[in-house]
Amino acid sequence: MSTPDVVIVGGGIGGLSAAFALSRIGLQVRVLEQAKEFGEVGAGIQLAPNCTRILDDYGLLEEAKARGVVPERMVMRDAVDGSDLTSLDLRDLERKYGFPYLVIHRSDLHGLFLEACREAGVELLTEQRVAAYSHEGDTATATTEAGTVHEAAVVIAADGLHSVARKRFIDDQPVNSAYVAYRGTVPIAEAGRPVDLSEVVVYVGPRCHFVHYGLRGGDLLNQVAVFESPKALAGLEDWGTPDELDTAFAGTCDAVQQGLPHMWRDKWWRMYDRDPITTWVDGRIALLGDAAHPPLQYLAQGAIMAIEDGWVLAGHVKRLLGDDGAVDWAGALAAYEAVRPEHCRRVVLTARAWGELWHLDGVEREQRNVLLRAREADDYSFTDWIYGPTARFPEDEPAMFEPIPLVSAHRDLVHDVPRPAAYCDDMCELDAVPDAEQVWCVGAVVLDAQGRAFLQRRGPDRSLFPGCWDLVAGHVEPGETLREALAREITEETGWSLQRVVRDLGVVVYTGNDGVRRHEVSYVVEVGGDLTDPKLEWDKHTEYAWFGRAELPRILQNSPPFDQLLHDTVARALQP
After folding, report:
1. Fewer CB atoms inside 10 Å of the end CB: C or N, the chain?
2. pTM score, whole prediction
């Protein structure tokens, strides 16, 4: 084999798009794919204007539009009640940014780049599992498990989330989000319900969300169901299973429920990202795509960032390409590394925060909904930083948006999950007296030196949730503040004394087996007293135990709804 200018490891969307971009400027490019054939696993993918702008530059946009769907509206709805929260007019979005918002099947986008690479003369090799990288002087190599050495002026590692090349830069591991995705793509005729294919829809709910949109000219309906796995939070190996899917979406609206039967139940995708890194170049070896910046999917920018990487790198290579055909690779790679890591850092971290926003519960969910409903339809302040032209130089990177604190939501509008009448958004709420017309409870999570939570089992004769594990908890008496009730319950149930409230775990609203609707606010607390000798009220409780992450599944043995409610509260308390 002749020596190419560039070897790219990884034949996914990022690797192929970079290969095409570099071949367009006259470079000889070889792509190494570990599988027996080039292909893409998955379903739908969303392409925002920052990507379709690049497809247009490549001369591929019209074909991409022909293979996909150009929707007219993106709408976010509440997964619990189905109400609209906010939307984007995608026709106006195209007018603003100059390029459309497109949805397409991943395999169709991958096939588009594969065809373009073949036409451009890119060398495409399969069954090339790369095990090692090296560089010396003005060359770099990628060596396969079979011992084949591929040499070039530059080796680009587009080898994904579990990148071998990344280990040259940092000894890290993928970050487990504890969320899992189920997908289901069906012919629109088999959807079983009317679906407006002019919309991209996301239903956001407590620890879950559901997405649907059309593909392949409207012939297919793509659906994605994502949820937090209690088994993952508990540290179990077998997590994200179909039984958890059903439980996670049990409280969602009819529109979501109607889509769940179409989910593929024989496979699911656990969701990981990695912490951002700033060094992507080691001599003549460079990271690209998920090898450098795997994100969670909430901004729909994972594949887009990989496509941008290749476009930016190719732009600098073209700028530094001499008349004799020689490339100033040191300059091109330095310019690439000067701009892309910071942009991708922003996307990775914002995607994490966006996911947290989607999955809020209780008062925070209502605050989020109020703020989203207040957004003006033509307000693009939250998309300008990401949908505008891709920066090739650091000075061209746009400013980030200004986050809006949840607590700025007008309290008169946050009504579905009320707080005490004197509620405010810091620890002074402890001195509030709840509305006497509502039933309020307080719960205390006490942690020991090993970070385990104290729970006690309710007696079998208790009228409310008999035999269930419970926090140190009880009702707020008339005229009592939350702080007073918390201190009293801790002393009455354990003999310990409240020393400090560490943090608020939020409010849950539930109806018990006695038919009473309760609002319970829980806190992580520090107490005084001997943690090895709690003075239980033995006429009310039968035993106590300390629960770490490994013990969390035991809580799910409680009767509903106290199984999931208590499990999630304790899981939040155990998070650092």
Report:
1. C
2. 0.74
